Amino acid sequence: MGYASFLKRAQALLRIRNQLARECLAELLAVFVLILITLSGSAQMVTSSGTKGNVLTSYLAGALAVMVAVYTAGGVSGAHLNPAFSLAMCLLGRFPWWKFPVFVVVQTLGSFVAAGAVYALYYDAIQFYSNGTLTVSGPQETASIFATYPAEHLSLSNGFLDQVMGTMVLITGILAIVDTRNNSVPRGLEPVAVALLVLSIEVSMGANCGCPMNPARDFGPRLFTYVAGWGLEVFRWAGGHRAGAGGRRG
């Protein structure tokens, strides 16, 4: 009885009552889980030179990560996970504009911290694979584990179109899945449907630049690679990455 009473008091003490704080923490945790699994899928593929993963397994990891992340925060924050989705909700009048910058900061922070966790998890593998040299280009590059980079053939205009179309399909699909007036997905299976949507986009539109479709997912880890030693090249380099090696949507 004493332990049970102590546990109840501890739960009451640790309970977060502020709704915005609860939403931010849920969003932070969900994005962290999303990026942790997504980048780990890329790290496993890259550092093993394709012997312990390939583009398809990397895409699958990213899609399943979306499912886990939506289950993690869906009931608290709505599991936006993505500034593009938050912006769409604001434009549709379903999310207050004043919360938008708050969610963007939290989503980017979650991505940054998750990138650091993946770097720690795969530190030895990255060092071994790259011979201790962190590069953005070349046969032993490792920057594409964390951020998305354009394929050699891609122009700036085509890359812009690629992301606009991919993100459009993503947002449209999510809105259709959660629309109660539509042919409804069985309750509780919405995250599974969103994961399948993400997977379908990845396997059909991933060749150009890896289907980031999420500014926070790309910028947070990219900023981490700059801080961790890859240098300014992470913000300006173009071409030469293996197609699909970069991370996915979130």
From TrEMBL:
Gene3D superfamilies in the cross-refs: Glycerol uptake facilitator protein (1.20.1080.10)
GO cellular component term, pick one: basolateral plasma membrane
Catalytic activity: urea(in) = urea(out); H2O(in) = H2O(out); glycerol(in) = glycerol(out)
Keyword Transit peptide: no
First-listed, main subcellular location of the protein, grouped into a coarse class: membrane
Topology versus the membrane: Multi-pass membrane protein
Residue intervals passing through the bilayer: 20-39, 59-79, 100-122, 160-178
Keyword Transmembrane part of the UniProt annotation: yes
GO molecular function: glycerol channel activity; urea transmembrane transporter activity; water channel activity
Subcellular compartments: Cell membrane
Functional note: Aquaglyceroporins form homotetrameric transmembrane channels, with each monomer independently mediating glycerol and water transport across the plasma membrane along their osmotic gradient. Could also be permeable to urea. Also participates in cell permeability to H2O2 and H2O2-mediated signaling. In skin, transports glycerol to the epidermis and stratum corneum, where it maintains hydration, elasticity, and supports lipid biosynthesis for barrier repair. In kidney, contributes to the reabsorption of water, helping the body maintain proper fluid balance.
Name of the protein this chain belongs to: Aquaporin-3
Source organism: Alectura lathami (Australian brush turkey)
